[in-house]
Design brief:
Number of domains: 1
Order of helices and strands: EEEEEEEEEEEEHH
CATH class: Mainly Beta
Largest sheet: 6 strands, antiparallel
CATH topology: Rieske Iron-sulfur Protein
Mean pLDDT: 84
Structural class: alpha+beta
Strand content: 35-45%
Low-confidence stretches: none
Length: 145
């Protein structure tokens, strides 16, 4: 088991109102739905973006491309036509003496770092061309021949 992070009193968590927190740079959503407490790491697997989900029906929705994830499993319910390689990563929560605790571990930080690396790699691939280089525009400064 990882570290326990005290989040909030059980009575402060409201049904269908996601609580967004960050611990050690990792963003989490904690949600009470149908009497169950669920926790996820807020990294959308579609484009590895950190996001603040909104709740709609039985789904957490990524606001960037409207990808929908099941509130109880984190699995993709509607990819909205996007390629989504996985569901939302779950995090463990415990209730101790009336308090909600998040169980964090190094895997959570590692997932965030992997997402950043994939995002950086995609950005590097996109920067290999530009309109100016494609058409031979720019690139020469005064005095260059």
């Amino acid at each position: 088991m990882g570290d326990l992070v005290l989040v909030t009193a059980i009575g402060a968590l409201r049904e269908r109102r996601p609580l967004i927190i960050e611990h050690d740079g990792v963003p989490y959503t904690i949600l009470l739905k149908d009497g169950r407490i669920e926790a996820y790491i807020n990294i959308c697997p579609h484009q590895d973006k950190v996001f603040k989900p909104r709740l709609k029906d039985e789904c957490l929705i990524c606001p960037f491309h409207d990808v929908a994830f099941d509130v109880h499993s984190g699995k993709v319910v509607d990819s909205n036509g996007k390629t989504v390689r996985a569901g939302l990563p779950k995090a463990e929560v415990l209730v101790r003496d009336g308090w909600i605790c998040l169980v964090t571990n190094e895997r959570h930080r590692s997932l965030l770092e992997q997402a950043w690396a994939r995002k950086k790699e995609r950005g590097a691939r996109k920067r290999k061309w530009s309109w100016t280089s494609l058409f031979g525009l720019g690139g020469k400064k005064n005095g260059d021949r």
